[in-house]
Amino acid sequence: MSKELGLLNFLCILAVIGFLVMIVVTAVTAGELLTTDTLFIITVCLVMAVMFAASPLLYLRSEGKLPIPFIKKPAPPITASASGAAIVAPKAPMLDAKGRAMPADVKAIVANLGPAKVKES
C-alpha cells in the first residue's frame, strides 16, 4: 500500500509541476496577458494544480511532516512526582460499556457537557 501511495503522490506532484509550467509558458508566449483566452487558460491550470496538490499535502499533514503555521499543539498535562520531577501524565482513553475506545465526536460531546448543575429549590 505504501508503494502505491508514494507513486500516486509522485504522479500528482508531476501533474502540479506540469500545470505550473503550462502557466509560465502561457504567460511568456502570450502577446497580451489580460485577454479572455489567456486568463481562462491560466485559471484552469491553477485550479487543476490545486486539485492535484491537495492529495500529497493532505498526506503530509496526516503523517505530521507538514507543519501548519500559527496552529500550536496543546501541551500535555504535567504532574509533579514525589521527587519533585515533572511527569507527563498520559490521558486515559474514554471507553464505552464494552471497553471500546469512544470516537472523537462522542468525546467532544462529553467534554462539552461537563458536570451536571443541580437546581436548588
DSSP strand (E) fraction? under 5%
How are the strands of the largest sheet arranged?
A: 1-2
Low-confidence stretches: none
Helix/strand order: HHEEH
- Biggest sheet, in brief? 2 strands, antiparallel
Total strands: the figure is 2
The count of helical stretches stands at: 3
If you compute it from the alpha carbons, what radius of gyration comes out, rounded to the nearest whole angstrom? 25 Å
Write the layout of secondary structure elements.
Layout: H1 2-29, H2 36-63, E1 78-80, E2 86-88, H3 104-113
Antiparallel strand pairs: 1-2
Please characterize this protein's 3D structure:
This protein has helices at 2-29, 36-63, 104-113; strands at 78-80, 86-88. It is mostly helical and 121 residues long. It has two domains: 2-63; 78-111, no CATH class. The protein has a two-stranded antiparallel ribbon. A hairpin with a 5-residue loop joins strand 1 and strand 2. The longest helix has 28 residues, at 2-29. The model has no long low-confidence stretch (mean pLDDT 83).
Key structural traits:
single chain, 121 residues, mainly alpha, two-stranded antiparallel ribbon, 55% helix, 5% strand
